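Practice problem: PDEase domain-containing protein
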Amino acid sequence: SAGIAREVGASGEIRNVADTLTDPGLGSEITDHDGFKIWSLLSVPIRNSEDNVIGVVQLKNKCNGKPFTEAFAIFCGLGIHNCQMYESACKLMAKQSVALEVLSYHATAPQEDVDRLKKAVIPTGNEYQLYSFEFNDFLLSEDDTCKAAVRMFVEMDIPNKFYIPYEVGHFRCGCVCAISFY
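Answer key — structure tokens:
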């Protein structure tokens, strides 16, 4: 039966042997590797989505169809469910990709705002009253809110703690601008 499985795998054709003794291609009794006598055999190639043969299923010695039909129906149901779940996951991944692209586009600050913030003199924390309980960020303009955020990053030593090189500072400014202006 292993030889028939190899043959079906190579050819991709279904092989149905109703009686191994009278089949012209076999003409003798077939025994499995463990001595199991086979008198009828159905070998069907298993194909993937690209129609390539990825395996062979063999059904041996059919008695009646009921147990096989029930088991095969469960197997088919699992396969169909798996395909539906995969399709659903692909659709959700595509939607997520589009959503992230849209969010990324809208969360980006205009380059002129980033350049302006990079060139600006950032006042000290005392000038913004960052250490005071009277500090109120609602009174700050958008530009001052960005400058105050950059000042907090610098005073908390965020660039050194997270190993952000000074050249990447424009990212910090761009991020602050994008958060503030949106």
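Discussion: The first strand starts at residue 15 and ends at 17. Students who identified this feature from the tokens alone can consider the problem solved.
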